[in-house]
Amino acid sequence: MKTPLAKELFDRVAGGVALLAASPLLPLIALAVKLEHPRLPLLYSDMIAGKDGRPIRLWKFRTMLPHPIDYDNRPEIRGDNPLVTRVGRWLRRFKLDELPQLAQVVLGQMSIVGPRPMDVRRYERASAFFKQRCLVKPGLTGLAQVSGNIHLSWEERMEMDIWYICAWSIKLDLEIIYRTFGVIVFGEEILEAFATSRRIRDHGVRVTALGRGV
Question: What is the pLDDT of residues 56-92, one digit of tens each?
């Protein structure tokens, strides 16, 4: 699926402006992460499925202690998990650990808004229906993230991502960005107003291929 020119331009410009605005924070965050655990790497990385399923490396500030990852059944990690560092709790609460991904938006690997990254192992095991979410670039924020996120099931989040692709518009992107600031300020627990599940049912998201009977 070809990325609309308007979205491509918006991502590059908005990503560049956001990266410039965040630049004073980056060394402060890096210093805080390093002071707490000097021996651990500053950044965490993982291989995710990018546009059309092509593997790309995702980067973020480290917020957790090293631990084995169960890729077959990845549990949701909340801020009170003992694996999350003290600095990491604040970074995750205000989404500051995601700031390095702004560079990936500027480079064209990610979008400001889109389906949230899926690791390559989960992508390889996903059904053809759920693999459709990788027809576009992964996003820094997305519809599921402003509609409850970790309080939703994995299947609900996947369906929201596919509905987003079907219903995409600049207006929808701006709405999601606006609501993302609400998540940053108030947290994810209060998010019910978007009524995403109803919108998905009304638009019949369960399609076998994008563009057919949406």
Answer: 999 999 999 987 666 566 656 666 778 899 999 999 9
Q: Cα(163)–Cα(32) distance, rounded to whole angstroms?
A: 38
User: How far apart, in Å, do the first and last CA atoms of the chain sit?
Assistant: 16
Question: 205, 176, 189: which is closest to 14 by C-alpha?
Answer: 176
Burial class (CB in 10 A: 0-12, 13-18, 19+), 42: middle
List of residues 6+ apart from 84 with CB closer than 8 A: 63, 64, 77, 78, 92
Is the separation of the CB atoms in 103 and 61 below 8 Å? Answer: no
What pLDDT is attached to residue 187? 75
- Are 99 and 30 in contact by the 8 Å Cβ rule? The answer is no
Of the CA atoms within 13 Å of residue 67, those in its CB half-sphere come to 15
Q: What is d(CA 34, CA 41) in angstroms, rounded to the nearest whole number?
A: 8
pLDDT number for residue 195: 43
Query: Strand pairing partners for 139?
Result: 111
What tokens does 134 get? 């990788």
Q: What is the spatial distance between Cα 165 and Cα 138, in angstroms, rounded to a whole number? A: 11
80 phi, psi to nearest 5 deg: -90, 5
**Strand-strand pairing, 43-49 and 139-141:** unpaired
Residue 6: count other Cβ atoms within 10 Å of its Cβ: 11
